[in-house]
Amino acid sequence: MHEHGARQPALVRLLFAVRWRLGAWLGWDRKSSGLGARVQTLRDRLPEDQRADPDVVDLGFLTPVYVRPMEMAAEVANATVHGAMHYGWVPDGDCYALELAVYTSANGRWGRAYMALIRPFRLLIVWPSMLRQWGRAWVTGNAVDHR
């Protein structure tokens, strides 16, 4: 389920491994606290013809909301947070630049504490690494064809 971390640097893989282990021990990732249970999915709020098929695009722990050739949105929900990510390739002179937005809504007091604790790791290690990975995939032509 979380195989996407295998392509990341060792420190990022370690951070995700710690997160998944804690989630298993503390029950953060039970279906009852996720999408369609604790929170309504963003995907289900879209008209049917605009929704991503979750079986077509494998995003690991993220569930695709919509996927287009130059942009995508995905989400995750668990006992700590409901998060959405949007990224898109936008013209930047004679090339393209990747723009990323991550939106989170903490679930209760524990969710707010958890998000504050992991913020430096997300901003300084995880997101820069993921952006570099996506950029390399785009440049080398290994990006997923989302059509």
Describe the secondary structure blueprint for this structure:
Elements: H1 10-26, E1 63-68, E2 71-77, E3 81-92, E4 95-106, H2 108-140
Antiparallel strand pairs: 1-2, 2-3, 3-4
Number of helices: 2
What is the alpha-carbon Rg in Å?
Answer: 16 Å
Describe the strand arrangement of the main beta sheet, using strand numbers. 1-2-3-4
List SSEs in N-to-C order.
Answer: HEEEEH
Biggest sheet layout: 4 strands, antiparallel
| Molecular shape | globular
Structural class: alpha+beta
In helices, the fraction of residues equals 25-40%
| Uncertain ranges | 1-5
Q: β content, as a range?
A: 25-35%
Let me know the average pLDDT: 84
> Can you count the beta strands?
4
Distance between the termini: 23 Å
List the main descriptive attributes of the protein structure presented here.
147 residues; alpha+beta; 4-stranded antiparallel sheet; 34% helix; globular
Q: What do these coordinates show?
A:
The protein is 34% helix and 25% strand. The chain contains 2 helices and 4 strands; from the N terminus they run αββββα. The chain has a 4-stranded antiparallel β-sheet, with helices on one face. The chain is an alpha+beta fold. A hairpin with a 2-residue loop joins β3 and β4.
Brief characterization of the structure:
With 147 residues, the protein is α+β, with helices and mostly antiparallel strands. Helices cover 34% and strands 25% of the residues.
